[in-house]
Amino acid sequence: MTHPELNAHVLLAYAAIAVGVAVGIVGASWRRPRREPIMQEPAIEETDDVTEHPSEIYHDDIKPLQEQTNAELVEKLRKAAKDLAARMPDGITSDDIFEVCEIPANVDRRIMGAVFNKNEWEHVGWVASRRKINHGRPVRRWIRKAA
User: Fold this and answer.
1) At 117, which CATH number?
2) Angle (nearest 5°) at CA 102 between 85 and 145
3) What angle do CA 125, 139, 69 make, to 5 degrees?
4) 43: which of 32, 67, 81, 100 lies 20 to 30 Å off by Cα?
């Protein structure tokens, strides 16, 4: 390329850069108006109330009611647990009790917590549940404390 042709290419490149910069500046200065939100966020009130964890509500309120309402069933399940514990010194789980006792459909399965609620049981570990409905979730293994 000769000197005049080179100058033309350089000038064309500078012109392209200048146009690009101008478009960028104009484009950046033009903005869409901000849309206001359709709904306002509700104001959150600060309170000093501490909400209980659901497990605390269950242990403090529901479990004692289950034990009172289903006292006969709870005693039947406790007797079965004691019999199983005598035959299984390594410990028992709620699965073992479910295998030997039928619980009516209208009774919450968490009633098993009332069975092991007394101070005569000691938690010694966790095992995978054998019941299909539990999908292998961990359940506690219990042994009966020495009398």
Assistant:
1) 1.10.10
2) 20
3) 120
4) 32
Q: In which band, very low, low, confident or very high, does the pLDDT at 33 lie, cut at 50, 70 and 90?
A: low
48 has pLDDT over 80: no
DSSP three-state, residue 31 = coil
Residue 85 CB contacts under 8 Å (≥ 6 apart), including other chains: 91, 92, 142, 143, 144
In 3D space, the residue among 100, 97, 110 whose CA is nearest the CA of residue 66 turns out to be 110
- 74 lies in some domain: yes
Do the domain assignments include residue 23?
no
Query: 116 falls in which pLDDT band (50, 70, 90)?
Result: confident
pTM score of the predicted model: 0.59
Structural domain span for residue 106: 58-144
In a domain, 11, yes or no: no
15, exposed or middle or buried, with CB in 10 Å at 0-12, 13-18, 19+? exposed
> What is the total count of domains within the chain?
1
